[in-house]
Every structure is written in C-alpha cells, then in structure tokens.
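Aim 2 progress. For Gem-associated protein 6, the working sequence is reproduced below.
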Amino acid sequence: MQCGWPLLGPLQWIRYVTKQVKVKAGKDEELRGWLLTVDPVTASLVLVDFGDVGGSSVRVVMGHAVQQVEVLQDADEEMALRLQAVFTPPQTRSLDLDPEQLRRRRDRVRVWLEKNRVPVQEDGDQLTVAGALILSAPYGPDDCCSANQIILDRVQRLLRTDPHHLDPPEDQDQDRDQDPDRDQDQD
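Predicted structure tokens for this construct:
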C-alpha cells in the first residue's frame, strides 16, 4: 500500500487486520508487528509484538503519520487466538469453582456486606449493591461493575478487608466452623 492510508477506509483496512505488517511512518521510522485493529476515525494502527518470553507490547501508530503498510505474513490459527486474547481479561477464578462453591462464596460475600451495613440484594447469580453496583462471580473486588466510582471504590475496599476474600470456599467453611466468635444462632 502506498500513500493515503487514512483515505483507504475500513473496507480496505480490514484486509490488513490479524496480519504481520511493516509500517513506515514519520521520518524514516519503520515498525513491525501484528495489526490488531485500525481506529475507524483516526486511521491509527494498533500493532502487537509478542516477545520471546511470553509478554507482549502494544504500539499505536497515528494514522496521519502512516506512509506505507506492507503485509509480511498472515496469522495462523494460534496467532489469531493470541491476538484475540491481548485485551481479554484473564479467565476468572469462577471457572475453577463448581456451582455449589460459587453459591457459598456469593452467600458469604452477601453476609459480609450486610454485616458492614451495605444494602445488598441477590439477583440470580449476581449481587446488587445499593442499587448502583453489580457483583458477579467469583465475587471478588475485581468482579465489581458500577458507573458510580465512589461506590465502586468503597465496595472494592470493603471486599478486600473481608478476612476470607482470597481463601477457597472449602477453607472458609472450615474456618467458620472453628471460629469461636461465630454467632451460634446462624446454625
């Protein structure tokens, strides 16, 4: 591809996505990487380079600076999956837990929030906190979703202070059974 990258448009750009490319940009700058995506507004390229150690680096090449894009190779199936996973969060711990363990964890978190006088309701597999935050499995601080930054921060900090928030569910039940301060009327 010669000059005029921003003028090509999305229908042409898509032909370069998930391919290893060489990009000439600016004054004699040449970059290589796997083209993850192209911003449809600015024509900026997102290049991913996978290191030998297993990490990856991401570079954004501003669309107005692109002078030439050359395809070096197509992605095989393994590389396509690696590219898809670049911005995908790591699999949650809930995949390692059976439904009963998740139910116990959800109940424990609900009780912890109620103990700290936080209004919480069960909504299927999720917990709704103060009508402004949703807590999904596996019910840890990073599993909170809210547009209200203040509530999000406070609930996450509260969940981090839960003495059992990192323990596996089986260990938590054993700890509760051995806890002498536990209310006897909960049985």
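Strands lie at 19-25, 29-38, 45-50, 56-61, 66-74, 120-123, 126-129, 133-135, 144-145. This observation will guide construct design in the next reporting period.
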